[in-house]
Write a structure and sequence with these properties.
The chain contains 20 helices and 14 strands. By secondary structure, it is an alpha+beta fold. It folds into two domains: 8-156 and 315-377, Periplasmic binding protein-like II (D-Maltodextrin-Binding Protein, domain 2), CATH 3.40.190; 158-314 and 395-433, D-Maltodextrin-Binding Protein, domain 2, CATH 3.40.190.10.
Length: 435
């Protein structure tokens, strides 16, 4: 869900070394020996996240161990970059965590190389386990021969806005009826030189110019464009409708100057909304804990409508179990607990993401979080017009071609349409290589 920095080529080499074959993964059939034994077993669970997340997951682990005294879970949380680096090393050495977190767009790069266990035999023995899960969150992990992963939580992108800035400007807050034209008009009024030195120090709108998830994918979809063909063979970000959305965003940056260029964003080195520099920003729920400590009043509205209507993205973090796990039954018991009402209620307390169980996401555990006046329901309502963030082999390399290629445009160094003409065939070459 953040920019992914490791190379898919390196992944391919390492994972092929780890599994020794690219043949389809064999299902892990639940055994009865482990279940029949009361001998204690230990499993490892690895994920990325902040220290606050580690505290919550340790509580979930403690709850699980109390209910399953014969299973001990060793949990480890790393920052985003360190997590993936360490995981590559563990897979190459044949010592992966029993359970580890997965970002949905990367799922097929791992599943297709045979390092994940097929969870379908376990799900067949627990037929009601997924009945309460939002179907949009399951789609990424399903393959023709079953599920090789399950969603843990999910994110929809919404439009965060700084209420203090809107109040000071005398502007009405964004609503579900807002269009991109409304966002653009408000952004102009919210862009200020507060020091009178000729330098803009408050922008009306900012978006992630590299990653499709918090900003530009929503614009392309709402204009009737798309990201990639359904068969994952053709890059569509340069098609006519998509270009109209790109042009709208480009105009906000370089014509209106109500949204910062990449050079300005780099100077701040972080989230401009949280820094109190931007009045509006498309973002996911993972940013909420930081926004709660930012020192200003804020809320969120649905993403604005384009000519084709409203659109947002939905993405998830999930669980996978290593094919080489020595205790797959115990590993699945932990996954099952984390997806239970008890586990998902604890997860809601974290505040970083949205539970995948409808009954928990639509309960006070998520909707009435302590210490927050944020309209949590907007994240759930946005599912009605959501598009799944694309999941396909070669995602990271493809995303780098597009994100890095567009970087020159957002720095003001390259022509928009010429750049799109150049990066689309490069991105298509990545898709062809990963067919």
């Amino acid at each position: 869900m953040k920019r992914i920095l490791f190379s898919v080529i390196i992944i391919a080499a390492i994972l092929m070394t780890a599994c020794g074959t690219t043949q389809p993964t064999q299902a892990v059939v639940p055994t009865t020996a482990q279940a029949a034994s009361n001998a204690p077993v230990e499993i490892s669970f690895s994920m990325w996240g902040a220290p606050e997340e580690l505290a919550v997951w340790k509580q979930i682990v403690s709850d699980f161990e109390a209910a399953n005294p014969n299973i001990k879970v060793n949990v480890e949380v790393s920052d985003w970059d360190s997590y993936w680096d360490k995981l590559k090393t563990q897979l190459a050495a044949g010592t992966p965590p029993d359970v580890f977190a997965m970002d949905a767009p990367l799922f097929l790069d791992y599943q297709s190389r045979g390092v994940l266990a097929n969870l379908q035999p376990y799900l067949d023995k627990n037929p009601d386990m997924l009945k309460d899960v939002y179907p949009q969150t399951l789609e990424a992990y399903q393959t023709p021969d079953g599920y090789y992963g399950l969603p843990r939580d999910f994110q929809t992108i919404v439009l965060f806005y700084n209420k203090d800035m809107f109040d000071k400007a005398g502007l009405a807050y964004p609503t579900a009826d807002w269009t991109w034209d409304d966002v653009r008009a408000a952004s102009k009024k919210l862009t200020l030189d507060t020091n009178g030195d000729g330098k803009i120090d408050q922008y009306g709108f900012v978006f992630d110019q590299w990653d499709m998830e918090p900003g530009w994918s929503e614009a392309l979809w709402s204009y009737g464009g798309d990201i990639i063909s359904s068969d994952h063979t053709k890059t569509l970000v340069g098609e006519t409708k998509a270009r109209e959305a790109w042009q709208m965003l480009y105009n906000m940056v370089f014509v209106d100057k109500s949204s910062p260029d990449n050079n300005t964003i780099s100077q701040y080195g972080g989230d401009l909304f949280q820094a109190g520099v931007a009045a509006m920003m498309p973002m996911g729920h993972w940013a909420v804990p930081g926004y709660n400590t930012a020192g200003f009043k804020y809320d969120a509205a649905p993403m604005p409508k384009g000519p084709a209507g409203p659109a947002t993205s939905v993405n998830s973090a999930g669980f996978v179990i290593a094919k080489d796990s020595k205790n797959p039954d115990a590993a699945f018991e932990f996954v099952k607990y984390a997806l239970s009402p008890a586990g998902q209620t604890r997860l809601a307390e974290l505040g970083f993401a949205i539970p995948v169980l409808k009954s928990i996401a639509e309960s006070p555990a998520f909707l009435e979080q302590k210490g927050s006046t944020l309209n949590q329901k907007v994240f759930l309502d946005s599912l009605a017009f959501s598009h799944m963030k694309p999941v396909f082999k070669g995602y990271d390399e493809w995303a780098s071609v597009v994100g890095d290629g567009m970087g020159a445009v957002w720095r003001g160094e390259a022509d928009l349409n010429k750049t799109l003409d150049e990066i689309v065939p490069q991105a298509d070459a990545v898709l062809e290589k990963n067919k």
